[in-house]
Amino acid sequence: MRTFDYEKVKDPQYFRDGRLDAHSDHRYYADQAEASRQESGFVESLNGLWKFHYARNYGSVIPDFEKEEYSCRNWDDIYVPAHIQMEGYDVPQYANTQYPWEGHEEIRPGEIPTAFNPVASYVKYFTVPERMQGKRLFISFQGAESGLALWLNGQFVGYSEDTFTPSEFELTDYVKEGENKLAAQVFKWTSSSWCEDQDFYRFSGIYRDVYLYTVPEVHIRDLRIRAIPDESLQTGELEICTETWGEGTARFCLSCQGEVCFREEHKLSGKDVFTWQVNAPRLWSAEQPDLYDLTIEILDKDGQLQEMIPEKVGFRRFEMKDCIMTLNGKRIVFKGVNRHEFSSVSGRCVSEEELHKDLTVMKQNNINAIRTCHYPNPSILYRLCDEYGLYLIDETNLESHGSWDLVEQTKDYDYIVPNNKPEWLDMMLDRANSMYQRDKNHPAILIWSCGNESYGGKDIFEMSQFFRREDPTRLVHYEGVFRDRSYNDTSDMESQMYPTVASIKEFLAKDRSKPYICCEYTHAMGNSCGGMHLYTDLTDTEPLYQGGFIWDYI
């Protein structure tokens, strides 16, 4: 029987155990009626009250709490999703560049605090709904900070790190008839916390949705959609790649504003690629975010409908021409903001209503772009940006600011994470892959970002090469090469923070090999933005300067 070993949490090479491969965030339904309601019978939410125990460190946890015979029914109740710090346990902690344990425990990269490192133990008793019984059963944690260990009915299911992308596991071999006991432990700081030193409030716990799900006998597990116009913009190519569990047939239908572009039926055989030509495609942009409706119906060998997948498709061509970024053949200027996922009421557990309000205010103020500083956001953000018309720099969950910020004084270059360290590379690539696989179908995303303020080095360069291999239709961003030019090709654009207009002009007078953006500028946390017109004026006179992202939108 597999067991969980807490000592491995201190190892940067241990970041997934039993976790399923990342996949696209497409939704699937049993039929059109479910799709119209946006309520899938394949899904059962586990949001709500869970049993809960708080410990200030691992030595204080209740041993064997996950076992079936141990009753947790007298434990406290806690709401999921939520940060434990917003539910009365531990306290929110704001820190910028320093690590949150500094001044309390002296540790080196990869090590974790021991005296104070809160552990949240969760238990949920549940019965599998009748409609889901007898099928393969899975669980999805959309976000848990920062390490998650999982048991079902006393058996260890798996472990996952990466606070900001889903952690999914198969429960089929562990589930039983009647009541089941689901147990989880969430560790505030793990070895990966050295890569989560973003400038924000520090929380922990299960703070995004949790749900059970099943799949039909024939199921599209992963879906990749690319809709790219040719150079003339008169013909668009739609390419759909599917990874299917089971054998069956797919019916594809593409339409726009009620007008059907095509209907076709094709056999499915594991991994397939289908392409179509679309004449005079409506083009997606922030100014006119035209979207097509794609419907995929999956049938089994007997012609019975297994699932229905509705997706939005945006045709747009984003590329570099003569060192200038263009969208649909025209030079693009980013009038953007950095946006942390944050609510004054509930921390990073943000309601859909608040999200709609944020994006509406942005559009009302002529903001056309968001940098997801400095981690992937929930899938709903990407769907809304597709719909509203907001460009995205989608940023990998990586910031190790505190590992290198003082290195010029200390000269302790071995302290930098991840840099050129092979023991951190797999974790970096896993984070890049988890973000890419989930988000790859959203037309709003123009640029993949390797992370934020994590110095330079080979590991981050390898992340950039991963994005280029997987997705030649987008560009790659990373600001940190400004501080370490050893792998300057990591970023397709020159990206700097808080430069003066004069310094931008001076840089471009010497180096015109890349376009230039300010990934952060006109620091707006307080009395600021007074000289912003100098930057916006520069976009009119210097073609290689293509805008920036205000720090930050709150």
TrEMBL record:
It catalyses: Hydrolysis of terminal non-reducing beta-D-galactose residues in beta-D-galactosides. It is an enzyme of class 3 (hydrolase). The keyword Repeat does not apply. The keyword Methyltransferase does not apply. Its EC number is 3.2.1.23. Gene3D superfamilies: Galactose-binding domain-like (2.60.120.260), Glycosidases (3.20.20.80), Immunoglobulins (2.60.40.10). Keywords: Glycosidase, Hydrolase. Coiled coil: none annotated. GO terms for molecular function: beta-galactosidase activity. Residues 319-554 form the Glycoside hydrolase family 2 catalytic domain. It holds the Pfam family Glyco_hydro_2_N. Belongs to the glycosyl hydrolase 2 family. This is beta-galactosidase. The lineage of its organism: Bacteria, Bacillati, Bacillota, Clostridia, Lachnospirales.
